[in-house]
Amino acid sequence: MTGGLQQSDTAPDVGSGAARASYPRTRRVRFRFADGPIGKYFVDDDIVFSHFVAGLSGGFPPGEESFIRSVRRFADQISDPGLRKRVAGFIGQESTHGQEHRRLNGRLIEMGYRVGWYDRRSVIRAQKWFEQKVHGHTHLAMTAAAEHYTAVLAERVLTSDELQALPGDPEVWNLINWHALEELEHKSVAFDVYRATGGSETRRIAVMAAMMALTLPFVLSSLAVSVACDRDARRRPLRLARETHRLLTGPLFRGLTPKLAQYLRPGFHPDDIDTTALLDRWRAELFGTDGALLDHLK
Ligand SMILES: [Fe+2]
Ligand SMILES: [Fe+2]
Predict the structure, then answer these.
(1) Ligand nearest to the CA of 143
(2) Distance from the alpha carbon of residue 91 to the mean position of ligand 2, in angstroms
(3) Is the pTM of this model over 0.85?
(4) In angstroms, how far is CA 102 from the centroid of its own chain?
(5) Residues around the ion ligand 2 (C-beta < 5 A)
């Protein structure tokens, strides 16, 4: 399906037909989770926050594989060479994210987190069945909307001193920062494929409205189940209440709805939110001359 799509490993550049966008770069990285023990509550010794991050990590690999399938459904209709190159970078980045999160998820499962179900064969089968039942542009609109979620969260992670100051396992932080950087690098690719292949504004906005209605209940209920399955956590109801309040009013969730709702505006484009300077700073920080993750590149 992806015939002719080569993964880009070149410096950012401007693609024709997508003047504000750049080519996402596929970096083959490998994190070293096995090098040291990860504390059970690996984010700020916070039970709820740690379960939340574990749930995100559990959902990423199958979610990102669905994103890739949604874009590949339209690969044959993309004629713009710049966009084809960006799609190749998007696929390369998302598949690497999935691989590294699966490696982290293996550790999380050993630590007692119930994140294995996301990857269960029956769940993947149901996911693929659903994808085939909906219109290709609905599937792609779901990806474009999800990419807005990840871009908003990524921007928060990379700009918030409060989040960056949270104590946690350093290698998990490395993974989060690398993933956030690349989410911002490719934030408009699925969106531009959707537009270039004739996806309508009505469908794009309707899909996002539905996702905004469903996401919070899904996230909160899966978080509640995850915490409820944790015997140590169950014994501390007051701490759980305090930490849940702190998570929902903290730098990740505070003011999140208006940021997500920007996507509902007719004519919105992900590059309307300028993250160029932020990307430059983090590219240098992680992969520049003295980049913190240079030694993680394969
Ligand atoms: Fe990703
Ligand atoms: Fe993404």
Answers:
(1) 2
(2) 9
(3) yes
(4) 13
(5) 150, 183
Select from 192, 157, 178, 188 the least CA-distant residue to 93. 178
Ligand closest in space to the Cα of 150: 2
Q: Which residues pair with 22 in a beta bridge?
A: 14
Ligand nearest to C-alpha 70: 2
Ligand nearest to the CA of 101: 1
Neighbour-count burial of 4, counting CB atoms closer than 10 A to its CB (0-12 exposed, 13-18 middle, 19+ buried): exposed
Distance 241 CA to ligand 2 centre (A): 31
Residue 133 has phi, psi (to 5 degrees) of -75, -30
List the alpha helices (DSSP H) in the chain.
47-72, 81-110, 121-133, 136-159, 161-164, 170-185, 189-196, 201-228, 231-234, 237-249, 256-261, 276-287
Q: Quote the CA–CA distance of 62 and 120 in Å, as a whole number.
A: 10
| Torsion sign over Cα 83, 85, 86, 87 | positive
- Per the structure block, which two tokens stand in for 101? 């999160």
pLDDT in tens, the chain (298 residues): 333 343 433 333 333 334 344 689 899 999 988 655 678 899 989 999 999 999 999 999 999 999 999 999 999 999 999 999 999 999 999 999 999 999 999 999 988 899 999 999 999 999 999 999 999 999 999 999 999 999 999 999 999 999 999 988 889 999 999 999 999 999 999 999 999 999 999 999 999 999 999 998 999 999 999 999 999 999 999 999 999 999 999 999 999 999 999 999 999 999 999 999 999 999 999 999 999 999 999 8
